[in-house]
Amino acid sequence: MYPEGSRLYLIREAEKNFAKKAGIQPFKHCSHPRTGAAHTTLAVCGPSLKDSSKSNAGNQPPMEYVVDCTLGYPRGEVVDLGKAMLNEWPNNDTHVAVHYSIHKVKPEWNDEEKLKEWLYQRYEEKDRLLEQFYKTGSFGGRPRPVRFPISRSLQTQAFWMCTFYVHWHVWISPLIVFGWTSITAILF
């Protein structure tokens, strides 16, 4: 689930308008969640009110937890995905802080108003966490840096390059040749 709908720097004005229309205070560092998709996800995958060991979708086990992730970027400068892939980070700072909290899914979240209330509380907490992060550079608690070895990155890149190579020769190149020869046969 991604209840914000987008990254704040892209929808800051929409967040202000939404908060004004709803008669609530806008958040400073995140946007108010839109509950429709989250409610639909929980309505299908969440625990049934009749039997919490089953999902609303049938006999499958229900989704048990929601993992809440809050991302903190140095100085609040969010990099867009394309630039991150090209290793173009603001101020050449590739650090991103992630705060996790895990919440057990509750059957009462089938009620959209209760889910909305719970999500708004989480986002108030996120806004406070981000305020602290931008002041101190930390979410608090014990930091656990993640080291991503260059060897794993190289293996991943090699895998995707090989996959692309196979796809190119198996179907992309033949499709282009077929399309080109068909078009030239029609035109000439």
UniProtKB/TrEMBL annotation:
The keyword Transmembrane applies. Residues 94-154 form the Acyltransferase C-terminal domain. GO terms for cellular component: endoplasmic reticulum. The keyword Cell membrane does not apply. It holds the Pfam family Acyltransf_C. One of its GO terms (biological process) is phosphatidylinositol acyl-chain remodeling. Keywords: Acyltransferase, Membrane, Transferase, Transmembrane, Transmembrane helix. GO terms for molecular function: acyltransferase activity. The chain crosses the membrane at residues 168-187. It comes from the Eukaryota. Belongs to the 1-acyl-sn-glycerol-3-phosphate acyltransferase family. This is Acyltransferase C-terminal domain-containing protein. It comes from Bursaphelenchus okinawaensis. The lineage of its organism: Eukaryota, Metazoa, Ecdysozoa, Nematoda, Chromadorea.
